[in-house]
Protein: Transposase
Organism: Wocania arenilitoris
Amino acid sequence: MVDTCAGKDIVIAIDPSYVPKSGKTTNGLGYFWSGRASKAKWGLEVSGIAAIDIDNHTAFYIEAVQTPSNLSTTTLLEHYTNVLVARKELNNTYKR
């Protein structure tokens, strides 16, 4: 869809968002940064990935990816980067 509807200049963006969630048994629960509260809060984090069409001033939503709460071997920035690199290798939508 991006290739057929977007202009020639696109960038890929990722936007992590905090999702409040109570309970103890939901997979991925942990403390994540909430920009609205300006602090880490208990819940989930989901990262929205979009192709931003510079020419037409719009964006195409591609995918949402849940952030794991137990990132013991990587930082959050490395996790976000790995998510984008893995999707780039799997999907030609990211290429022009």
